[in-house]
Structure formats: structure tokens, C-alpha cells
Amino acid sequence: MASAEELFISVSPQFYRQSKSSGLMSQAELLHSLKHLRNLSVLARQKNDLRKNFHKLLSSTLKQINAIQDKMPTPQIPKTILRHEEQLSKSKLEPRPEVKKTFSKRDEIEEELLLIQAKLKELNS
Fold this sequence. Notes:
The protein has helices at 13-71, 79-92, 106-124. By secondary structure, it is mostly helical.
């Protein structure tokens, strides 16, 4: 007879095969899921590395843009245009809108970068 710890039951061969098959399928699915999780962790590491590289590239690009802009002469507004604006402002007695003395594309680039960063934050969240 069986001891108190052992229990024997009779199972049909078809039910045994189905149970064994479902157990093995579950084990295979778990291993498959584990494989996908490991791939996801590798991809997350690669994503972080790419983000760091992208940040380095952006910062070096900004440094190069600043260096180029420092070397470039700033265009001056012709005196005839300034005189004409002064005459218009005196005749109208209205406050004259500010005229940019320098034509820097840096502001436009920064605004575009801020828009791109906002879109990226939107996509990531």
C-alpha cells in the first residue's frame, strides 16, 4: 500500500498526454517570454547608449555652431534704413519697434530644438 505521503491515481492515457502536452507548452511559452524580456533589456541598454551618443553629438554641434557664429561678422543695418525708420518714427510719433542689430540664426535653431524636444517628450510619455 501507499504511505501517507504518496497517493496513486489512475489517469487515462489521453488525459495524461494532454496534461503533459499543456505543461510542456506552458514551459516553452515561459522560456519564450523570458527570451523576449532579455531582448528588451538589451534593447533598453542600446537605447540609452544611443541617447547618450545623440546628446554628445548635439552638444558638439551646438559648440561648433557657436564657434562658427563667433567667427562670422555680424551684418550691420545700413544707415539709410536707420535714418528712414527714424524719420518715420518722428513723423508718426509712435514708439518705434525694436530692430534687431544682429541677425543670428541661433535663436531660430534653439526654438526649433525646443519644439523637437517637446515632441519627443510627447512621444515618450
